[in-house]
Structure of Cytochrome P450:
Amino acid sequence: MAADPLPPGPRLPAAFQTLGWMKRPTGYLGRLRARYGSRFTMKLLGQPPFVVLTDPDEIRQLVTAPADVLHPGEGARLLEPLLGPNSVILLDGDVHLEQRKLMLPAFHGDRMQQLTGLMEELTERELDSWPAEEPIVLHDRLQQLTLEIILRAVFGLDEGPRLDRLRERLSAILVFMDNPIAMLPPVQKRLSGHGSVGRFERDRAAVDEDVYALMAERRAEGDTGRGDILATLLAARHDDGSPMSDTEIRDELMTALVAGHETTASSLAFAFEQLARAPHVQTRLAEGDERYLNATINEVLRRRTTLPNPEPRLVKQEITIGGHTYPPGVVLIGSAYLMHHDPAVYPQPFAFRPERFLDEKPGTYTWLPFGGGRRRCLGAAFALLEMRVVLRESARRFTVSPAGPAMPARRRMITLTPGDGGRVILHAVTPAAAPTSAPDAALSAA
């Protein structure tokens, strides 16, 4: 069967389309959806054609397509300079499935429960530093918190000089990654060794040196019963019985950092932004109802998606989706943002209403903050646990009000974050009125 012409889309030069995609990431997508319908084509600088899909059935076909037909790993290749070639995000086919199987035990629900106490300790320490009764920008503070949680719970670092060094160097690397243009392979190649790219390369090499030294020490110690994710990866075995190599583990640790740092910090900042304008939701959360807390988190992740276009998939073999046939070389994207704001799927899609998730679980192909199918984010349970811990403790301590008008989301690398950095005003709750913290509910499925 011959491939069909690509779906219609804007005829603007790729430079102008790239500018719209970067500067107005949600508004631009919304305008294209309104003009061209449920599927449309974008052309971005230095990239193959991107076809955006928004119909639930087409997204189902997309995320369940055979692994040899669509390659999500190749669709995310711009992340390789930081993640490394062994990252589960960048692998495809049987190699991806094997690496994913090695990673699964590290993010199992039981393992996450073991990390709850550490997350609570670090969260309480961070919230102790938050001032009340004055405007506060939360995104940067939440980034510090999520980085600290990853360094302690994922990398397994203890307090000391190595933790301090890695915190500083990884922070610099993550700031560099905020710029989508700087991460494009042609720019990386041209500027290698110079300016901000040279600094990024030096910081990356220094981080690798520390991480490999940490792994050597932990291997020498043997099994000490530590509950961090590094310990699980060190114990993992391939199908032939061989351990994961240091390079594989390094790449997966960096993957956990990149996938779980900015996304969770931004999701939490969006949560405070939404709660500040929803006093009734705050009242329900203050009652300590875990079911309502989970529904609120689901609604935050729907309403303010940090990954608007999760897991782009490169077509390797001709495929028909929704009656339309696509040739090799095209990238297909299931748009989480447009799906989450489709009134046919979510009535009043721009309203913040956690109640919509009280009696109905998020749909497999209509709620996509963690992607879908065999590529669904391995760290979903980790991120959801972080959000529950932070929002539960915050509801015990504070009420939240706006510090200014609502601002459009802005792009940071491949993620979205509040346009004003999550600027709100916190009001201290008197101890007598503070609700009792309820035990953590069962982890959502990952």
Observations:
- The radius of gyration is 22 Å.
